[in-house]
Structures are given as C-alpha cells and as structure tokens.
Amino acid sequence: MELSRRELSLIRALATRAGRKKSGCCRCEGLRAVRELWAYYPEKVRFIAVAEKAAAMLDFSPQMIRIVPDKLFDDISGTVSTQGVIAVAEIPADADGPVEGDFVLALDQLGDPGNFGTIARSLRAAGQKELWYTKGSIDPWGDKAIRSGMGVQFGLNLRRFETLEELADFGIRQGMKNVFIADPHQGESCFECASLYDRSIIVIGGEPNGVMGAYPGAGRVVIPMPGNYESINAAQAATVLIFESVRRKMS
Amino acid sequence: MELSRRELSLIRALATRAGRKKSGCCRCEGLRAVRELWAYYPEKVRFIAVAEKAAAMLDFSPQMIRIVPDKLFDDISGTVSTQGVIAVAEIPADADGPVEGDFVLALDQLGDPGNFGTIARSLRAAGQKELWYTKGSIDPWGDKAIRSGMGVQFGLNLRRFETLEELADFGIRQGMKNVFIADPHQGESCFECASLYDRSIIVIGGEPNGVMGAYPGAGRVVIPMPGNYESINAAQAATVLIFESVRRKMS
Which among B122, B224, B231 has the least Cβ separation from residue A250? Predict the structure, then answer.
C-alpha cells in the first residue's frame, strides 16, 4: 500500500512533542525499535512506513506496510543514515500493574534523550523492568528517545510522576523498602551498600550536580572515582549502578 | 586581542581531519576541555578564542585570548549552545613513556567520537591512564572527540597502532601480562575473571559484533546480561569493565 497524504503529515508531526500530544501517537524508527514495538504492543501499531530499498528485508504484516520512495523516506527520517523503517503507533499508557524486578531505576529531571536511551538499554540488558521518571525529564516516547533506546522502552514498565516525593511515596506504598539517591560527591560506596538492590528505588539526576529533588530518609550512594574527576554523565553512572546489581546476582 | 583572519580560517579548517593534518593542530572547545589542555600542554596552545559574552568569566593569560563577537563565535562553534571558548593547540605526540596504571584499555576500530569521549572520561574517572587504539578508530584529536571527551584525552597516554596484533605485541614487550578481548556473546564473566586487571590489555571493539582483530592466546570476557538482550554499546561496555576495576580496588 502507498502512504496516504494524511499518514505522511502524521509522521512528520510526530517528530514534535506538540504533534504527539495532539494525536496520541509516537513514531518509532529503526528496525530494532519497530521489532520491540511489534513484540509488546502489536495492537497499537497504526502503520509501518518502509523505504523502497528496505522493503525486501522486512517481514511485517503486509496490511501494515506503506511503501515510501527512498528519497521521500530520507526526508522524513530523523537520522542521517536511515534503516528505512518507521512505525507509527499509539503511545502506550504508563504501566499500572505491580512493581516487577529487584529494584526501580528513577530518573529525576533527566533532559537528554540519548542518556535516556542508554539507561533504558542498560536496564533491559540487566533484566530489570521498572524505569520511573519525574516531570522535567524527556518524553520517553519522543522520536530521539525511541531511536536512542532502540525501542526498549516498549518492554519496560515506565511510570511518570510530578515530583520525586510523589514517585518515592508511590514506590513505598507498592512495597519498595528503600530510596537511594545517586550523589556525584558523597554517600556510601555503591559497591558496599548492602541494601542497594533490595526492593530499592535508585534515583539518578540529569543535572551535573545530581538529583535536585529530595526525599526524607533517602540514603545517598556514590560511585567511587579514584581519578578524582567527576566526569561521568548520568548514563554512565546508571550503567555502573545497573551492572553492579548484575554482578551481585551472578556471584 | 582580536582574532586575525588567518586564525579564523585555522579554527574553521580544524573541524576537518584534512585541516588538522595540514596544520598539525586541533581545536578544543568547551571550558572543561580547555582547562584540561591548559593543565597538561600549556606550551602547545596557540591561542584561545573567546566569545564576547563569555570573556568576563575566563581567566586564561591575556596574551592567549582572542575576543570574538558572539555572532561570529556561534558560527565557528561546533555546538548548538556554545560555552564560548575554543582553544587552538598543536596536536600532542603519542605517549612514548612507560605504561602506567593497572591495565590498558584498547579500542579496536571504534568509529564513534561520542563513544570515544565517554570511554576516555570513564577511564579518567577511574584513575587509569592508558588508552590505546588501532587504525580505523576515530581521531582522538577530532573536534567531536575532544568535545565529547571534555578534553580528558590530553591527560591520558594515547597510543596508536596499525593493528591489534601490533598493539598487543607492544604491550607484551612493555611488560603487560594478558590480553583480554571483550566479547558480546561468550567468554569468562568479567565479574569473575581474576586476572582481568592484572597488567592486562582489555580490548573493546566498535562493531556491533565486537572486536574484529585477533591475537593468539587472548582470553575472552563477557559482560553477563540476564535480560538476554545485547543492546549495550561499546561505551557502556567499557564503563562496566572500567568500574569493575574500581570496585575490586576498593574492596
């Protein structure tokens, strides 16, 4: 099938937050991202735009596919070297089931979509499910966040909160036992904190100075840096914390 | 002092590999990057271009400073929201002293400057010094690599080799005891491999399938991923491996 004019303007509009808000849809670009979407929310997919050059490689249901001339596809793609596939889907609602896995990773005002994607992928690779975030963080269903996350957000339990306090209160009500804030300067070493992954909420901030919000009774953990140089970003810090949980589980 | 026409064309030219090759200089953008450069190689700095709006905040030697109108600065900057400072410096020669620290991190054909910068910063934060790379990896003195690394490459021992074999041979001659290749699929768990940081060369590849080169007798290590999803990139993998060394050292 060909892409209709209406579908074309929808794809273009979804590159912006306003366009997503108006339509309730998101655009999901890249082969891995579309496969994740298809695995978790096939019922939400409206259509899948495919560049002519990529059509032979793809195996999605024919009635979903809209073939797009290569040149037009390059024009609507958000990337420089496109893989030739963009799905348009309704934005999934936030998770509302029980909290799964060993711990919750919470992002407080994380503004960078690339960091968000990296963190989501580390969490997925570690086999965890819960990725929570506060207002002021990026939109997980934005074009760049989906691309950088390769769509892993479709398989995670995303939950959005107005403030860090609301987030932590919700977690505690759901049976979480601890709240830890990752601090770039001080706190207990993340390699020594015994209860770090025991039904905890681990909060990571997007600001260079870490988490801006506060929560009464929250512990502070720090990633030791013998180089005495605080140069790692939120995504690197999250990756260290996430894989420390893997190490403990494995040993 | 004002920026001369000649200096202006030099800054512009240094955004490309050809321009750097011709002049033997690099451009170093951002406040942290310029401070690193200034700390390690003050003698190599030719001049520092500063946007008018940023001039009051900076404290470099007046004879180094070239004040640039804000609009022109935005035009020569490689970033969307510039910090208003770009230093031009001669490219430092590769390290040729003894191998320092506990292990060597080696990059085999790592093509992404953002990943390079992230890895360099993790290494610096962990207090290690040796960052080696093979032909086919990005230029560590490229505009983007310096920005993404925030100039930490100026404080590391960078060494370039034609092939992985040449790199490993050099390391062994310098007294390194082991070569480990990070493999996305198989090998000993990085959390269990006892000799991983004992005078070892740890090789990370830029390709989705890992290291393309080979070395006789090299061990293979893998980062366990209970999520059964190989979605982490070279920079995340390197960060996990680097901070596992920190953890062992601290405990």
Answer: B224
- Cα A158–Cα A124–Cα A62 angle in degrees, nearest 5: 80
Per the structure block, which two tokens stand in for B203? 């090789």
Q: What is the pTM (predicted TM-score) of this model?
A: 0.92
A145 Cβ contact list (under 8 Å, min separation 6): A113, A116, A117, A138, A139, A153
Q: Is residue A110 within 8 Å of residue A138, measured between CB atoms?
A: yes
Per-residue tokens: B60: 């470099």
How close is the nearest chain A Cα to the Cα of B169, in Å? 28
Which three-class secondary structure state does DSSP give residue B59? Answer: coil
Q: How far is CA B109 from CA A143, B58, B165, in A?
A: 29, 37, 13
Q: How far is B227 from chain A (nearest CA, A)?
A: 3
- What CA–CA distance (Å, rounded) separates A125 from B122? 20
Within 10 angstroms of residue B96's Cβ, the number of other Cβ atoms is 7
Closest alpha carbon to B120 in A119, A204, A229, A113: A229
Residues of B with Cβ-Cβ distance to A229 under 8 angstroms: 121, 124-125, 152
AA letter at B44: K
Using alpha carbons, list the distances in angstroms from residue B194 to A96, B191, B198, B246. Answer: 43, 8, 8, 14
Beta bridge partners of B63: none
B47–chain A nearest CA distance, Å: 25
Nearest CB neighbour to B227, from listed A127, A191, A231: A127
Give the chain A residue nearest B118 (alpha carbons). A232
B75 Cβ neighbours under 8 A, 6+ residues apart: none
Pair B158, B132: CB distance under 8 Å: yes
Chain B residues with CB under 8 Å of A228 CB are: 127
CA distances from A122 to A156, A172, A208, B206 (A): 12, 24, 20, 17
* Type of residue found at B65: I
Chain-chain contact of B124 with A227 (C-beta, under 8 angstroms): yes
Angle at A195 between CA A192 and CA A201, to 5 degrees: 115
Q: Rounded CA gap, A170 and B202, in Å?
A: 43
Of chain B, the end-to-end C-alpha distance in Å amounts to: 53
In a structure prediction context, what are the per-residue pLDDT tens digits for chain B, which is 251 residues long? 889 999 999 999 999 999 999 999 999 999 889 998 998 899 999 999 999 988 877 777 888 999 999 999 999 998 877 889 999 999 999 999 999 999 999 999 998 999 999 999 999 999 999 999 999 999 999 999 999 999 999 999 999 999 999 999 999 999 999 999 999 889 999 999 999 999 999 999 987 777 887 899 999 999 999 988 777 889 999 999 999 999 999 87
Give the single-character DSSP code of A191: T
Q: d(Cα B23, Cα B25) in Å, to the nearest integer?
A: 5
